[in-house]
Amino acid sequence: MQSNNGPCPLLAIANVLILRGQLKIHQDFSNLSHEHLVTLVADKLLELNKIDENDPNYSNLQANLSDAIAIIPKLQEGIDVNVKFDDINSFEFTTEIEVFDLMKIQLVHAWVVEKDSEIENAIGKMSYNQIQEVLVRCEELKNKESLDTEETEFVRKGRVIAEFLENSASQMTEEGLKRLNTQIPDGRICVLFRNNHFSTLVKHNKKVYILATDLGFRDADQIT
Fold this sequence. Notes:
The chain is α+β, with helices and mostly antiparallel strands and 224 residues long. It is built from eight helices and four strands. Strands 1-2-3-4 form a four-stranded mixed beta sheet. A hairpin with a 2-residue loop joins strand 3 and strand 4. Helix 3 (58-71) packs across helix 4 (95-102) and helix 6 (128-141) crosses helix 7. The two termini are 16 Å apart.
């Protein structure tokens, strides 16, 4: 279990590996230290990414692997994830995100805009951080006495974006939930990012389930 509303991508990754049968925890262990779990996950990362020394890209691959290993101990505290709104798999690429790729773990979110909608036209391929910059610029433009045509259109899109963020504060949309159900194949185990929280997600018998690992769920009656 993790602390109330803790981010802990490390725990989500470990649970995916356990459910896949790729990581074994001895039954005599009633709990596991952070250091022990980091070692187990790092060892599995190396096992899944054996590099041929004769590979012409050996140096780059080795550097990527070293960077990923260095990130693993930091996964207990959470990582900076910058979502994009066009698909459940859409994130800004970072070294932290690469850890999931190297682990062969799909990272998804459900904060997705509907295709051919006004909000899709306003956001396009922008990330969360980029739309925050748009909103800041819109606030600055409010202080201008008059706006030209381009600035007026910019402010209009800013209002659409602000309304979208307000209406989807849960960071989960109907379109996102629909795509989780349609795009994730049955039997897939992956990690869901939502509200700075990382959860292990399982698609089973055409239904999506979230593994309840947070202490906040300890006394909940909705757990099945």
